DNA sequence: GGATTGTGTATTTTT
DNA sequence: TACACAATCC
């Protein structure tokens, strides 16, 4: 655990030197050049599927094994915990021992590590808490309220977004340039930002952005410290460099400022997080930032077949702002990329499900199959269809474990126990379950706390000794404070797991969910059990909290044979044999909203997203679009995505279901005037009551709308999607139906026919 | 202090 | 349509 590697040419070192050749074997010339490049700035432009992670980890191992740096002298940063974990595993596999001591982790984790050691230099105490998105928003809300602004006009969410943006760019309140001020809150944005930061300091807390921003303040404000870190980190390695924001870039540049021994790996064509503050400019500008930088391109793709690669390359080649790479493969050409046009989102889901079943019958694995969509709402149609045909699937994304309300509530309890002055956590659970401490009591507490400049809990403690509050509230408060004191006394005595159980029990939190009869209550109780189990892995409760704030992950699912459904963003870094890219329609993909907000730049990012999606596929790629889609229960018809036009024709084949080639639908879709008429190439048009009926896919059936009164309660009906059912209640044209297979649902009468 | 009704909104989300 | 939140009533 010393973190020291035995290096040298004798003893254990000789064994390592003997293996040196082995870890370089199997690398192609470019990969090998990247791994063994001498000290100095190095940019590795690694196209999709070209062995990026392998190069990065092998280079790290190479640096250690050749003695250029010892583990604690290496800083390696990633964006996700997953990537960090993978890197640790692979490096350990390469060097054959633990890499303890290495500074390897996410930007944020490395930021915290530095900040904990020097918290007082930026006005924090070492035990500071890290706020998540939820806390941030509530804090912002308080700031807006304190400034007497209209909360509806200037929502907290927007303020958080603005502050986040400034932090991503490395601006402290006094550094925000005038042009960036904007008109939020009548130009008071900076004032609010300042108030927000002051409040964070009094709470002894940081938000995610601060983890890096304070890091910058730390390094720029303390030259000795900077010099110390510059000497310490003899090698810096960065993964996914195209996703770095300005703050991260500045942080890296400071740390690498001495020796400039920095390796950045990335792919400008896969930059899809600009809306999160990522600056493609960082990677495009690397050679100017680090003069004399070596640039190595990895262009040999080991993942996809020829047609897939060529189709993806053809699309991305339309982007103007990029380094430019020419991916190639020695693999087989494989199948053509298939393009299918469907009538509506339901037919699209049906089509995909059919294709997956056929693939499975031919021996394909579901785990090797993914359906990738642009926006979350698109998953629904697929889920419904997959359930109907019994196709096992999982939706990746969704609410993550540590973001679920019950988990956050439980953690808020733990936080108050560990950090009594954590006001945000206390506010979250002070009246949960209900214990008679309502809004008016809370208001009084807040006022008192602010006046005395103490924390909420301290104010509550003081107030519970006076008779300022109504007896009811006062008693509840006395009781709560005593309970928290008791738990806190048990911190050192009980194991974290026992304590966690005690807290959830004695607070009445578990009981609250047990008493609740909503359908998701059992699931929530299950999650709480999972949480307690997770606590077990840690020596102390505070230790657990530190982990939670930085690692937001879903519980690992059993590795069953499942189809994966997820967003294109979520798919970055993954690969599958068989990939479906659904919903390629103007307006949806590329997203009209993105284009409205970001113009050409945004369109290029959408195109990169298309590229990312396409390059996820190893053997088979199917792109689909629907002529009609129901959005908020309104039918709208759309035009195929321009990205479909951009697919090189020689690498694709149109499936017959494409409406543009179908005589019955083609007349309106293929109609040039129709396309010309639409101002933004995306237009919507209501198609009232037009609907396809299961099993009669080729017939466009139109039925009358609003048959109110035509049905009677108790009547047996048939619905094309949910099957047979009985009408329980009628409300205008909405029927409340108990379906035999799908349970109780409210549906519009026009979709229902008498059985 | 708590339940109920009404209103506005609706991408992507590594930490 | 659905859901979350806020104003409103009891």
From TrEMBL:
It is an enzyme of class 5 (isomerase). Its EC number is 5.6.2.4. PROSITE patterns: UVRD_HELICASE_ATP_BIND, UVRD_HELICASE_CTER. InterPro entries: DExx_box_DNA_helicase_dom_sf, DNA_helicase_UvrD-like_C, DNA_helicase_UvrD/REP, P-loop_NTPase, UvrD-like_ATP-bd. Gene3D superfamilies: 1.10.10.160, P-loop containing nucleotide triphosphate hydrolases, PCRA, domain 4. It catalyses: ATP + H2O = ADP + phosphate + H(+); Couples ATP hydrolysis with the unwinding of duplex DNA by translocating in the 3'-5' direction. Residues 25-305 form the UvrD-like helicase ATP-binding domain. Residues 306-573 form the UvrD-like helicase C-terminal domain. ATP binds at residues 46-53. Keywords: ATP-binding, DNA-binding, Helicase, Hydrolase, Isomerase, Nucleotide-binding. CDD domains: DEXQc_UvrD (cd17932), SF1_C_UvrD (cd18807). Belongs to the helicase family. UvrD subfamily. This is DNA 3'-5' helicase.
């Amino acid at each position: 655990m010393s973190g020291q590697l035995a290096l040298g040419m004798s003893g254990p070192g000789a064994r390592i030197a003997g293996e040196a050749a082995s870890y370089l074997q199997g690398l192609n010339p470019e990969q090998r050049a990247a791994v063994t490049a001498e000290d100095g700035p190095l940019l590795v432009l690694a196209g999709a599927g070209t062995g990026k992670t392998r190069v990065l980890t092998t280079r790290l191992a190479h640096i250690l094994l050749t003695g250029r740096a010892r583990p604690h002298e290496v800083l390696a940063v990633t964006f996700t915990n997953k990537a960090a974990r993978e890197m640790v595993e692979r490096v350990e596999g390469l060097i054959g021992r633990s890499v303890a001591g290495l500074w390897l982790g996410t930007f944020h984790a490395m930021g915290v590590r530095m900040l904990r050691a020097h918290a007082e230099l930026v006005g924090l105490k070492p035990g500071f808490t890290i706020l998540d998105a939820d806390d941030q928003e509530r804090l912002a809300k308080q700031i807006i309220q304190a400034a007497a602004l209209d909360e509806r006009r200037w929502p907290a969410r927007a303020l958080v977004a603005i502050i986040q943006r400034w932090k991503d760019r490395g601006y402290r309140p006094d550094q925000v340039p005038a042009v960036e001020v904007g008109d939020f809150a009548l130009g008071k944005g900076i004032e609010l930002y300042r108030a927000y930061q002051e409040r964070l300091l009094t709470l002894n807390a940081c938000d995610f952005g601060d983890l890096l921003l304070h890091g910058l303040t730390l390094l720029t404000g303390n030259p000795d410290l900077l010099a110390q870190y510059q000497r310490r980190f003899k090698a810096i390695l960065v993964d996914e460099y195209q996703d770095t924001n300005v703050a991260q870039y500045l942080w890296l540049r400071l740390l690498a400022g001495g020796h400039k021994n920095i390796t950045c790996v990335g792919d400008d064509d896969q930059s899809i997080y600009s809306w999160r503050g990522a600056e493609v400019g960082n990677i495009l500008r690397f050679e100017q930032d680090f003069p004399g930088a070596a640039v190595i391109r990895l262009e040999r793709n080991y993942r996809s077949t020829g047609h897939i690669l060529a189709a993806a390359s053809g699309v991305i080649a339309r982007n103007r702002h990029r380094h430019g790479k020419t991916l190639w493969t020695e693999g087989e050409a494989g199948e053509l990329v298939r393009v299918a046009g469907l009538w509506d989102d339901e037919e699209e889901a049906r089509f995909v499900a059919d294709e997956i079943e056929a693939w499975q019958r031919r021996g394909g694995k579901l785990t090797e199959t993914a359906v990738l969509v642009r926006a979350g709402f698109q998953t629904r149609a697929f889920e419904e269809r997959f359930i109907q045909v019994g196709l096992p699937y999982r939706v990746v994304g969704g609410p993550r474990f540590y973001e679920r309300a019950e988990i956050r509530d439980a953690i808020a309890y733990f936080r108050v126990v560990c950090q009594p002055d954590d006001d945000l956590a206390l506010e979250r659970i002070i009246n949960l379950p209900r214990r008679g401490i309502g809004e008016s009591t809370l208001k009084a507490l807040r006022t008192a706390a602010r006046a005395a400049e103490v924390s909420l809990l301290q104010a509550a403690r003081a107030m519970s000794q006076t008779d300022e509050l109504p007896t009811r509230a006062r008693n509840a408060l006395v009781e709560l404070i005593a309970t928290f004191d008791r738990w806190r006394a048990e911190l050192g005595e009980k194991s974290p797991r026992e304590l966690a159980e005690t807290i959830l029990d004695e607070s009445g939190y578990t009981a609250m969910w047990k008493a609740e009869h909503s359908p998701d209550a059992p699931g929530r109780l299950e999650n709480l059990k999972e949480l307690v189990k997770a606590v077990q892995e840690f020596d102390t409760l505070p230790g657990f909290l530190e982990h939670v704030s930085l690692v937001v992950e879903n519980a690992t699912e059993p590795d069953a044979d499942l189809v994966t459904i997820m967003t294109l963003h979520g798919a970055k870094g993954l690969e599958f044999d068989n990939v479906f890219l659904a919903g390629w329609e103007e307006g949806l993909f590329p997203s009209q909203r993105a284009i409205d907000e970001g113009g050409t730049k945004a369109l290029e990012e959408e195109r990169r997203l298309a590229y990312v999606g396409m390059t996820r596929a190893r053997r088979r790629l199917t792109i689909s679009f629907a002529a009609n889609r129901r959005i908020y229960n309104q039918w709208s018809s759309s035009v195929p995505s321009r990205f479909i036009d951009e697919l090189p024709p020689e690498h694709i084949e149109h499936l017959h279901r494409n409406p543009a080639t179908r005589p019955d639908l083609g007349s309106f879709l293929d109609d040039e005037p129709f396309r010309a008429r639409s101002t933004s190439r995306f237009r919507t048009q209501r198609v009232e009551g037009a609907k396809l009926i299961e099993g009669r896919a080729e017939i466009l059936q139109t039925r009358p709308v609003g048959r109110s009164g035509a049905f009677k309660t108790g009547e047996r009906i048939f619905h094309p999607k949910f099957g047979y059912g009985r009408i329980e209640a009628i409300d205008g044209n909405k029927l409340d139906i108990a379906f035999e297979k799908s349970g109780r649902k409210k549906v519009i009468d026009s979709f229902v026919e008498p059985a």
